[in-house]
Design goal:
Helix content: 55-70%
Shape: flat
Distance between the termini: 42 Å
Order of helices and strands: HHHHHH
Length: 144
Amino acid sequence: MTRGLTGVVLMRRLLDPRAHGFYAVQLFTHKVLRRLMALPLLLVALSSASLWRRGTVYRVATLVQAVVYGLGALGLLLPARPVARSRPVVLATFFCFVNLASLKAAWNLLTGKRIGRWEPRREAAAPNPPVVAEAGRLPDGMEG
C-alpha cells in the first residue's frame, strides 16, 4: 500500500481531470480514497462515541462499530482459535487488518519511509525435471 500511495504522489499530475479525464477520477477513487478510508472510519468511530447521549442512532452506531472492531481484534489476537475461523470474525478481521495496513501506509508516506521491492526466498531444492511425452501420448499420470 505504501508503494501505491508513493506512486500516486510521484505521479500526481495524473490526478488532473482536465488533462487525463475520467482516468484521474478513477485513480483518485481507487488509489487515494480507498487507501485512506481508515481515516474517515476513525473519525466516525470517535464522533459516534462522543454523541452517545444525543440519540439512539448514535448508540447503535457506536455498538455496531464496537462489535466489528472487537471481532476484528479477536481474530487478530487469537488467530489459532476455532472462534477466529467463524465467518463474522474472519470478515471483521480482514476489514480491520486492511484498514490498519492503510493507516500504516499513510504513516509511511508522511514520514518518508520507503518500502523496497519484496523478493520471495526460494528453497534450494532440485527443480522438477520437465515432463516429456512421446508424440501422440500423454505422460503417465496425466489424462486428457
